[in-house]
Amino acid sequence: MSDLYELLDLPQGASTDDVKKAYRRKAREHHPDTGGDEETFKAVTHAYQVLSDPEKRARYDRFGDDGTSNGRGGGQDPFGFGGLGDVIDAFFGAGASGGFAGAGGGGARRNQPGRDVLVVVDLTLEEVVTGVHREVEVDVARGCDTCGGAGSADGSAAERCGTCGGAGQVQRVVRTAFGQLATAAPCTDCQGSGRRPTEPCTACGGEGRRPTKRTLGVDIPAGLEDGDRIPVRGEGEAGRQGAPPGDLYVQVRVATHEVFQREGRDLTAEVSVPVTQAALGGTLTVPTVDGEDAEVPVPAGTQPGDILTVRRAGVPVRGGGRRGDLHLVVKVEVPTGLDARQRELLAELAEVRGEPLSSEGAGLLSRLRGAFQR
Ligand SMILES: [Zn+2]
Ligand SMILES: [Zn+2]
Question: Domain 261-373 adopts which CATH fold?
Fold first, then answer.
């Protein structure tokens, strides 16, 4: 099974917008009507279908392709999207009302749930360590208060749509990148559902849902990685005329930190140690990501590049479990701007240690000579 991202020439973190653009390009290239290979076209379309749907994409990212075929809306065929009419829908209309377009829109699908919605939340590394409560703004259609979501003004049930005769589709000629095509387009009077209330609710025009700005509180657990998503069931777009709502996904974007680099649960930072402390040993006080200082012993004879570790000062596992460690990479500071007294002390040290200030590169030379004598 080829990689879905590769099929669309996309990096793993590509945005939904990028997925759409890439698919548009690839669909044009591979569409059978323009001389493309049908199998490739199907594969590309399948990749788009998965990667443009946050739930399917999350499942694919986690489990690979096996998990992608039994998504919500079960009864659809595995392609569900292969028809040219649906491809056109992906290009025009269907996705235009915001949120996640996914493969929604085409055909007479009664009770089709509302779409899933993605909201991105920016986090600092500090917030990742503690977890945080966030208010997120979601601007998406929700059930109409006036008609209770049914779409009718008088509470009557929806009837067969007169425009499409209940089919949910009308034949239409569309001029596209592939040329002029006769295609079945979703009926605009019933939004493809094939049904319409006799007396539409005036507040929502019979849709049963209206654009609604809401602020939702979301608890973001500790330990998330950049790109992780928290599903909030039922808080996506409302379905039409009382159909079930989609889900909301809160995706975290973790800012890079000035001091700490993250590697899974562990953090790494560079720390300067004066040459005297490195030689003699001592204790170093360092700031941690919690904002508290930690004391870390510096063993005598510490070398540049040695690693000092502060246990449990890293990032917790997802949901706030055991924390990783903080690794400090030692940089030994050679003193500069010595005064007379300091020079004298160092010179004396050099003398006592038998390290003349003019010398051969002893270790290197003896190793070279040894090599020649062999
Ligand atoms: Zn209404
Ligand atoms: Zn209709």
Answer: HSP40/DNAj peptide-binding domain (2.60.260)
